[in-house]
Design brief:
Elements: H1 9-90, H2 96-105, E1 112-121, H3 134-145, E2 156-165, H4 168-179, E3 184-201, E4 209-223, H5 231-247
Antiparallel strand pairs: 1-2, 2-4, 3-4
Helix pairs in contact: 2-5
Length: about 250
């Protein structure tokens, strides 16, 4: 017996069309939700990347500021080192109190200092010794490539000494002692002349004045180059000076 379908074909086609439209609508919604989710994920990632970029930019700005401060500190350090070196170069290699103590320590008995003068001069250049030989040119090129020495270190300290002594024997003794000193070099006699000083009463007790004869001398010397005193040397000079003062 054959099956008889009493449902109209239009109704069946309408139901199939509705199911198809519903399936398309569901698929469309799924696609839209997927697109919306992807868009939201992209936005979240973009915001995270923007935040990271801002953080990296801030760190770079901070690093640039730190580098700038470090460069400024380096420049200040170089300036301070230059100032310290200049100050060290300008400092006296031998304190004047130590030099004066050494000069007075070596005074023979009865000898006194009248005047002391220290003069710093640039060393004299012997122009006659300059040559144009290849060896001289090579030496000049070598000297030009080496670090330059500051002019302060090239200065020579000249010392003029004036005093009085009982006789030329004490003057000679003083020159010999200064010549063997660790501080001085090129000690030489400039002048030695008779010097009379008014005295008191004579041996007989009369009221006549008698003149006392001395030798007034002038010496010149130079401070040794590249001299560096240790603490022990300074203490020894000071101790000897204190002993000389007590004995005097």
């Amino acid at each position: 017996m054959s099956n008889i379908n009493f449902v109209p074909d239009d109704y069946v086609q309408s139901n199939e069309s509705q199911r198809t439209n519903l399936m398309y609508l569901v698929l469309f919604l799924v696609v839209m939700v997927t697109l919306g989710g992807s868009f939201m994920i992209i936005m979240v990632r973009q915001r995270a990347l923007s935040t990271k970029e801002e953080i990296i930019t801030a760190k770079m700005a901070q690093a640039e500021e730190t580098i700038k401060q470090f460069e400024e500190l380096q420049m200040k350090r170089k300036a301070m080192m230059k100032t310290a070196l200049t100050t060290a170069e300008l400092l006296e290699p031998v304190p004047r109190s130590i030099l004066l103590a050494s000069l007075t320590n070596n005074l023979p008995a009865g000898t006194s200092l009248l005047r002391l003068n220290l003069i710093q001069k640039a060393p004299k250049i012997n122009r006659s010794a300059t040559t144009t030989s290849k060896y001289k040119q090579a030496q000049d090129k070598k000297a030009a490539s080496e670090p330059k020495i500051s002019p302060e270190k090239l200065l020579e300290t000249h010392i003029d000494i004036e005093g009085v002594a009982p006789s030329d024997l004490q003057v000679a003794t003083y020159i010999e002692r200064l010549g063997s000193s660790i501080l001085l070099d090129n000690v030489a006699l400039v002048e030695s002349k008779e010097y009379k000083m008014a005295g008191g009463k004579t041996r007989a007790g009369t009221s006549e004045d008698s003149d006392i004869t001395f030798r007034q001398f002038k010496l010149k010397a130079m401070l040794k180059e590249s001299i560096h005193l240790t603490k022990n040397d300074i203490n020894q000079v000071r101790a000897t000076h204190s002993k000389s003062v007590r004995n005097f």
